């Protein structure tokens, strides 16, 4: 009974050993093909990384982390190919000089392994072929995980960026709700009404209100726009809401409509818009 169990156990172990040996031999034989595939993957990944850098559109943290993982594997691929190519060049040089290309593997082992493989080229540096084969297998597993992560986390670099439009503002302001803006309003009025003297009637003046969002720039502009002195000073006033992202044609058309609201303008190019403005 015990002998039968031992025999079955040894058969199973022998079968496992044969399978592992076949896997290792297949790994040695397929290294050249896997290296060629790796070179193609290296070029594709390099192109993806370059495209992402040129677009400068990667804002989501998941996309950045995914690209970092891909870039790390790109460096691993480059190191593997560099190791392989360096060994190939060294083997060719040693062959020309009459030296053995592989001094690490015993001659008996090399002879036995080569008898199983169809191509004599696989006998080139057996320990290196073994190491590179395992490194490529591990790398491919990592790349498969990265590809799955891309689908799992919904990473899509072809997705159009979300455009958040700025709320449209009007010139209306409820003065009863505004407190503590008199000094800034009067200072802005002095600039508006002081500029435009006789010697500057043909020049343009731009007064910019600069500051962080939410500090009251729009409210200050509304206070000045609706002030009686401004209404009396300027023959024509226009309130134009600038879009975000900025659209030059849209702003120009809004100005034209304010100046001549009764006239219908067809599609205009940039030069025609500039002439009208």
TrEMBL record:
Occurrences of domain Disease resistance N-terminal (ranges): 18-92
Recorded GO MF terms: ADP binding; ATP binding
Keywords, comma-separated and alphabetical: ATP-binding, Nucleotide-binding, Plant defense, Repeat
SUPFAM superfamilies (alphabetical): P-loop containing nucleoside triphosphate hydrolases
Domain of life: Eukaryota
Domain NB-ARC: 202-260
GO biological process: defense response
Keyword Amino-acid biosynthesis carried by entry: no
Protein's UniProt name: Uncharacterized protein
């Amino acid at each position: 009974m015990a002998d039968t169990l031992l025999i079955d156990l040894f058969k199973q172990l022998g079968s496992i050993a044969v399978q592992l040996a076949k896997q290792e031999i297949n790994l040695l034989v397929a290294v050249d093909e896997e290296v060629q595939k790796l070179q193609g993957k290296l070029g594709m990944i390099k192109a993806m990384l370059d495209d992402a850098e040129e677009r400068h559109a990667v804002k989501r943290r998941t996309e950045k982390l995914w690209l970092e993982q891909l870039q790390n594997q790109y460096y691993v691929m480059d190191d593997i190919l560099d190791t392989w190519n360096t060994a190939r060049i060294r083997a060719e040089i040693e062959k020309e000089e009459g030296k053995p290309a592989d001094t690490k593997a015993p001659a008996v082992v090399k002879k036995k392994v080569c008898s199983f493989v169809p191509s004599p080229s696989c006998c080139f540096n057996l320990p290196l072929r073994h190491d590179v084969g395992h490194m490529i297998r591990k790398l491919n597993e990592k790349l498969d995980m990265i590809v799955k992560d891309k689908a799992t986390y919904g990473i899509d670099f072809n997705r159009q960026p979300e455009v958040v439009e700025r709320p449209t503002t009007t010139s209306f302001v409820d003065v009863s709700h505004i407190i503590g803006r008199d000094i800034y309003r009067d200072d802005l009025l002095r600039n508006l009404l002081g500029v435009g003297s006789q010697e500057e009637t043909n020049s343009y003046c731009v007064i910019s209100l600069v500051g962080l969002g939410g500090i009251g720039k729009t409210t200050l502009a509304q206070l000045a726009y609706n002030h009686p002195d401004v209404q009396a000073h300027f023959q024509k006033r226009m309130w134009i809401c600038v879009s975000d992202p900025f659209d030059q044609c849209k702003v120009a058309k809004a100005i034209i409509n304010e100046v001549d609201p009764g006239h219908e303008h067809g599609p205009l190019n940039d030069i025609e818009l500039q002439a009208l403005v």
